[in-house]
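Course assignment 3, question 2. Fill in each field.
Student: A.L.
Task: Predict the tertiary structure for the chain below.
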Amino acid sequence: MVAHLLRGNAEIDVTITPEDSDGQRAGFFMNVKEARQLARALLEIADVAQAAMWTPRLLDEVRNRWLPGATDAEISARLNDLCEQRGGGIELLSPGLLYGQDGEALAAAAHREKVDRAEAAMDAARLSLTDMESVISDLRTIYREREAHS
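Answer field:
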């Protein structure tokens, strides 16, 4: 690929040589606007291809091993987020099987969200960890007393 100015406009010359093509080549040129349109189209193609990787087998594996109780939509969203964090994509160990470190990353992200929600709730309620421990202790005492009187 070569980019150059032609009469003040940026032009991009592209030559494609397929692997194992015995010297076959194809070439074309485009301007910057066309290159950006092509980039958007390629991203859409990549998104569709990536979504095709989220097979029922993969969704079940993720739900069983790393995200119990998650819906297919939640798992797909988390997988898409993981792809973005990893530079735009992930590879599977084999069809329907996630690499262990990717599954662990999904579980860690889910746990981080739970901790963040709990922290936000405590902040909103203006409770400290000590306050929460006190409330839990009081609740345990109440339940013990109820059980003793039952």
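Instructor remarks: The first strand starts at residue 2 and ends at 6. The chain has a mean pLDDT of 88.
Grade: pending
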